[in-house]
Design brief:
- By secondary structure, this protein is of the alpha/beta class.
- Helix content is about 40%, strand content about 25%.
- The longest helix is centred in the C-terminal third of the chain and has 23 residues, at about 220-240.
- The mean pLDDT is about 95.
């Protein structure tokens, strides 16, 4: 199944991640309580807005110096994997030291290198450092925390399923992320995702939001009746479009 065009991925960035979720839940046959972060995240660059792209996955274990000896070419081999993947790309890093924080995979140098390889940012359940320099590189970071050192930072395994913030992510999976969290889209849901998200946003703006905002001079009875009717119309619209009532 063909991935979205770069243009359509860029269009997904025009919407926040909750809106993308609202679109996704109307089209998916998957469990809508899964597929996104179940643990708290920290968006260190909220001013950069949402990011969207395809996952490149990697595990590292900065507490363990043995990895430096077991594969002296690990960084070079890992970067070839990153370069081989279609973009735009989001690097999903599982820190095998979790819940400890021993060192950061990300800093100024690694961010600039990955930006050159077509990566727009990272989601890591470990740490980052050089936050200002990462911003200057145009590399967005969603992480657990910051730290000062990198310790024995080296890729251990890559191109595999990883788990970050309680969510499993496959290499090549479409991701959308912002200050609210992130969502990993199943492959079969990619094609309809943009249309569904745009429709659901418009449906809200045409029904339940004006019912709640345009209330000047109304009695409470009229206001409540209007909200009830708007909620019903919201559901009718979604059922007619996708055969699914959505959140209302």
């Amino acid at each position: 199944m063909k991935s979205l065009s770069h243009a359509d991925v860029l269009k997904l960035k025009r919407w926040n991640t909750p809106t993308i979720y609202n679109g996704w839940e109307t089209i998916t046959k998957h469990d809508i309580t899964q597929g996104f972060n179940l643990e708290e995240i920290h968006d260190f660059m909220p001013q950069m807005g949402p990011m969207a792209g395809y996952a490149v996955t990697v595990q590292f274990e900065p507490s363990n110096p043995a990895h430096l000896k077991s594969n002296a070419n690990a960084w070079s081999e890992y970067r070839k994997y990153v370069a081989s993947m279609p973009g735009p790309k989001i690097v999903v890093v599982q820190d095998l030291d979790k819940p400890r924080v021993i060192g950061a995979f990300w800093g100024e140098v690694n961010s600039n290198i990955h930006r050159a390889l077509g990566c727009v940012g990272t989601i890591t359940d470990g740490a980052i450092r050089d936050v200002d320099e990462m911003c200057n590189a145009g590399f967005k970071a969603i992480a657990r925390r910051t730290c000062v050192g990198h310790a024995h930072s080296i890729p251990v395994r890559w191109g595999i399923e990883v788990e970050v913030f309680g969510c499993k992510v496959q290499s090549g999976q479409l991701l959308h992320a912002d200050k609210h969290g992130f969502i990993a889209i199943p492959k079969e849901d990619e094609a309809q995702l943009l249309e569904a998200a745009v429709y659901m946003d418009g449906n809200e703006c045409n029904t339940v939001i004006p019912a709640a905002r345009g209330t000047a001079g109304m009695t409470i009875e009229t206001l409540l009746a209007g909200i009830d009717n708007a909620g019903k119309q919201f559901g009718v619209n979604v059922r007619n479009k996708f055969g699914n009532p959505g959140e209302w």
